[in-house]
Design brief:
The protein is 61% helix and 16% strand. The protein is α+β, with helices and mostly antiparallel strands. Helix 6 packs across helix 13 and helix 7 packs antiparallel against helix 13. The longest helix has 99 residues.
Length: 695
């Protein structure tokens, strides 16, 4: 198991903690440092409480809530065998504890358990560990290392029995445990189905009272339905009312259309020079505008022809000027042979005087051509000005003709709308006449309605009330049948619950007998056999590498030697250690406190390491626990500087654990490059910040 993210709200000193703020917690060793009373151990408590709830920590739920807060919450994201999980646990004194377990699938969290008990069972399945064994695997408590260092032989054996007993030794008696579990499942299944007979009898009495209420309600609704049906007989036919309303709306709409079309026609007349929509005036106006349009088109054609002629003349003169300049350049260019110049037109040799005269003639013609171009450009500009005025006038004439055409169409629309309005008014009068009334006001008056819409609503409400009462009576009748059937069913259930209660009691007695046999008669034998044959060797192998590293190879191996019972003390385990410097095997009582602390820390880490892979027997089919993380709470207090450096360097390179959290407020060297969680205090709130490469 690897912890990825920790979120705490109102949990002891942490008001709103997101660790880390971005990303995830890294693998390997993570130092947790800070002054006393800043909340280092509280961070561990937050992780344990988030995973396992109140049974995992010493404080009560109420004691976990920050001062002046009304609830606390912990969200722990962790990974087991490459699968991500998230537990969201909250406590509110008014609502109690809530816990939800999710499994991650492609950035989507799927709920797999949503109650505290089901979350605990599911977590046990995921880790293959029960709560107490998981805590002994994951957590090395503050002072625990010192306790191991000073433990007597019997105390040390009892400590190891306590650590390994829950999962390891209980599984050795599984033939009885399976029987107990089967009984427990049966009892729970029966208890889930069981209800106290007196509670069922209370439900029966409540149903009988409700049945009487249904009967009274049926009488009341019968009278109400009679009155409503009498009123409905006086109401006009709903279909005719709908038709009249449609005709009325159509009349209103056609009247609005007529008024709008008349207004638009008047507006369009203003821009055409027409005083009315008389056909004679319109035709005269159109005839004048069409003649004007033809005149302007002819004028434009003439102007375009003039402009084309001017452009051609300008182009011809510009071509001449270009040609003359090229000839001048050719005449002025020195001859390669040194001879006289050559005429560019006839290729005849020229004297210098002839050449100069010819150049002068060309330049005179260029000057004259340039003057002619300027004159032509002025003429072209004047023509273009006249053409623009002609085009503007032509566009205006075309727009006016288009507007007159629209007026003609608009006039037809006005006439058509007026005819439709008159037809709709006739249909409305005929529809009202079918009801035997003279006009609309006479139709509305008896029902005190302001409009046909109001009258229709009144009739619809009346019909809806009748339908509602009929539905209500149908539901009441259905409920009466259901209540009668449920009373009969509950009376049978009373008899069944009495039989079920007797069966539960007999199973509970059998379960107590099974527990006695397993706990009192079997466990002692299994514990001793497993302890002597399997456990000591496993711990010895796992511990030696830590002891060598923590003591700079002064102590090379650890052994646990069973000791017989003495006096009131039971059987024990004597911790022996090989001192390479003195070439002697020593007891812990012969070592300094610092040496005992280092060796005890190695022993405790070896225990946690074995818990992630231990099995009761070599050939057992059971899956090993999936906890390969450890939380170390202040284990370095009894070590000197060199020993602390050795511990940190060893833990940095330790591949036995996926993740190691080490709390310390002691100065530690050799931690450069190790991720650090700095715990600080700000007022009454603690802050935790992850530094991946602290300086």
């Amino acid at each position: 198991m690897k912890i990825l993210r920790v979120s705490l709200k109102n949990f002891k000193p942490f008001r709103d903690l997101e660790l880390p703020e971005e990303g995830e917690l890294p693998d390997g060793l993570i130092l947790v440092r800070g002054p006393n009373s800043t909340g280092k151990s509280s961070l561990f408590e937050g992780i344990l409480w988030g995973l396992w709830g109140p049974n995992a920590v010493d404080p009560t739920n109420e004691e976990l809530i920050s001062f002046a807060s009304s609830f606390c919450n912990a969200v722990i994201v962790f990974e087991v065998d490459g699968i991500r999980y998230k537990i969201d646990r909250s406590y509110d004194p008014a609502q109690g504890t809530s816990a939800v377990l999710y499994v991650g699938n492609k950035n989507v969290w799927k709920k797999i358990a949503d109650k505290a008990t089901s979350v605990e069972r599911k977590l046990e399945d995921i880790l293959n560990l029960q709560l107490n064994q998981a805590l002994n695997t994951l957590l090395v408590r503050q002072g625990e290392v010192a306790k191991i260092a000073t433990a007597s032989a019997s105390d040390l054996r009892e400590l190891l029995v306590k650590v390994y007993n829950i999962e390891l030794l209980d599984q050795m008696s599984k033939h009885l445990d399976y029987f107990e579990n089967d009984l427990s499942v049966r009892i729970r299944s029966l208890q889930d189905d069981y209800q106290r007979p007196d509670r069922i009898l209370e439900k029966i009495e409540a149903l009988k009272e409700r049945l009487e209420g249904h009967k009274e309600k049926m009488k009341e609704t019968a009278e109400s339905l009679k009155e409503l049906e009498k009123m409905a007989e006086m109401a006009p036919d709903e279909e005719i009312l709908s038709n009249i309303e449609l005709f009325s709306k159509a009349v209103d709409q056609h009247r609005r259309d007529y008024e709008r079309a008349t207004k638009e026609l008047k507006h369009e007349l203003e821009g055409t020079g027409l005083s009315s929509t008389e056909e004679e005036e319109i035709e005269g106006r159109i005839e004048y505008l069409e003649l004007e349009r033809e005149r302007l088109k002819d004028l434009r054609d003439n102007l375009e022809s003039d402009l084309s002629s001017i452009n051609k003349k300008i182009g011809s003169i510009q071509g001449m000027i270009t040609d003359l300049r090229e000839k001048i350049e050719l005449l002025k260019r020195p001859s390669a042979s040194g001879d006289d110049a050559i005429c560019p037109t006839c290729s005849k040799p020229l004297t210098l005087e002839e050449r100069d005269n010819l150049v002068e003639d060309y330049e005179t013609r260029i000057t004259t051509g340039a003057a002619d171009i300027e004159t032509l450009k002025a003429q072209r500009a004047e023509k273009q000005k006249h053409m623009k005025k002609s085009d503007d006038r032509l566009a205006k004439v075309v727009r006016t003709l288009d507007a007159i055409q629209r007026i003609t169409e608009r006039k037809k629309q006005v006439d058509s709308t007026k005819s439709e309005l008159e037809a709709q008014e006739t249909e409305l009068d005929e529809a009202i006449g079918e009801l035997g009334t003279e006009d609309l006001d006479s139709l509305l008056a008896p029902f005190e309605a302001d409009s046909l819409s109001d009258l229709k609503k009144e009739v619809a409400v009346l019909r809806a009330k009748i339908d509602s009462v009929e539905r209500e009576r149908g539901l009441i009748d259905e409920n009466m049948k259901k209540d009668t059937e449920e009373i009969a069913s509950l009376e049978k259930e009373v008899t069944r619950m009495k039989e079920l209660g007797a069966q539960i009691e007999s199973y509970q007695i059998l379960e107590e007998h099974a527990k006695y046999v397993r706990r009192k008669l079997v466990r002692g034998f299994v514990s001793d056999w497993v302890f002597q044959k399997r456990l000591i060797g496993i711990i010895r192998k796992a511990t030696n590498q830590y002891v060598r590293a923590f003591t700079n190879n002064q102590y090379s191996s650890v052994d646990l030697e069973p000791t017989p019972a003495r006096g009131r003390s039971g059987a024990g385990l004597q911790l022996l250690i090989r001192d390479e410097r003195d070439n002697a095997t020593k007891k812990t009582s012969q070592l300094s406190f610092g040496d005992r602390t280092a060796i005890s820390l190695g022993l405790r880490l070896g225990i946690s390491r074995t818990m992630s892979g231990i099995r009761p027997l070599k050939d057992t089919p059971m899956t090993a626990p999936r906890v390969r993380s450890v939380l170390l709470d202040e284990p370095l207090g009894g070590l000197d500087k060199n020993r602390r450096i050795s511990v940190v360097k060893t833990l940095v390179n330790d591949q036995s654990f996926e993740q190691i959290f080490l709390i310390t407020h002691t100065d530690v060297q050799g931690w450069e490059g190790v991720p650090v969680i700095d715990i600080t205090k700000s007022g009454n709130t603690s802050l935790a910040t992850l530094q991946m490469s602290p300086q």
